[in-house]
Design goal:
The chain is mainly α. It has two helices and no strands. Belongs to the V-ATPase G subunit family.
Length: about 120
């Protein structure tokens, strides 16, 4: 019986080594597929990133003119306001100085309003 068992065992051992080879090939295939998928995903990510960057640059370029126009308008408005302030200063300077001097020099002595209430 050992002679019959020996070819059966030998066949099982050969089948086991063949199965191990198939499993190893399947693992290598799976690993290669994962690497390919990662590479493909990286390429897609780079393409998407380039697309979005170009869209952003186009958007930024379209808005850059608007920003410079707005800045120019703000600068012009600031100049106009500064000129108005300077004109108002030169026009009202003498009146303000006169009013300040009148308040300081022309003193009208009178009792404090709280003091009047106490006496009254």
């Amino acid at each position: 019986m050992s002679a019959q068992q020996s070819p059966g065992i030998q066949t099982l051992l050969e089948a086991e080594t063949e199965a191990a080879k198939i499993v190893q090939q399947a693992r290598q295939y799976r690993i290669q597929k994962l690497k390919d998928a990662r590479t493909e995903a990286s390429k897609e990510i780079e393409e998407y990133k380039k697309t979005k960057e170009s869209e952003f640059k186009a958007f930024e370029a379209s808005r850059a003119g608007t920003t410079s126009n707005a800045q120019a308008a703000i600068d012009k408005e600031t100049e106009v306001r500064l000129e108005d302030i300077a004109e108002s200063y030169t026009k009202n300077r003498d009146n303000v100085v006169k009013k300040l001097l009148d308040r300081v020099v022309l003193v009208k002595p009178e009792l404090h309003r709280n003091l009047k209430k106490v006496e009254g």
